[in-house]
Amino acid sequence: MKVCLIPYLISEHTNTTLPNKLFDYMACGKPIVSSRLKPIERILIKENCGIVLKENTPEEFANVILGLYNNYKLCRELGKNGKKAFLHKYNWEIDGKTFIDCIEMFCPKK
């Protein structure tokens, strides 16, 4: 099974944003390995769909990828969890509905 990576350097910018690739990977049902970035870490842990590195070193990335390569069952579980979360929580259809509901709440039709 393929593993998807989010190998970003930790900075003020990357620690306050979510890359679209996170949701693309979840939609594809692939396990994710990411640098320790707060917004990404929150989702990966909450949805149990990936692994967050502790040290953010190339060696740690390699070891985690090899660990997943050797544990097909865990790869499938992480990927399945990510796809389920994407379908039920993290997609444009749901976000769009939330956005429209907010607009209608604050700007009711006359």
Explain the overall architecture:
A 3-stranded parallel beta sheet has the order 1-2-3, sandwiched between helices. It is mainly α and 110 residues long. The chain has a single domain (4-106), classed as Rossmann fold. The chain has 5 helices and 3 strands. Helices cover 56% and strands 8% of the residues. Helix 1 packs across helix 4. Strand 2, helix 2 and strand 3 form a beta-alpha-beta unit.
What's the CATH architecture name? Answer: 3-Layer(aba) Sandwich
Indicate how many domains the architecture comprises: 1
Tell me the CATH topology: Rossmann fold
The amount of beta strand, in percent, is 5-15%
Topology order in helix (H) and strand (E) letters: EHEHEHHH
Properties at a glance:
110 residues, mainly alpha, Rossmann fold, 3-stranded parallel sheet, 5 helices, 3 strands, 8% strand, flat
Question: In terms of topology, how is this protein built?
Answer:
Layout: E1 4-6, H1 20-27, E2 32-34, H2 38-47, E3 50-52, H3 58-69, H4 72-88, H5 92-106
Parallel strand pairs: 1-2, 2-3
Helix pairs in contact: 1-4
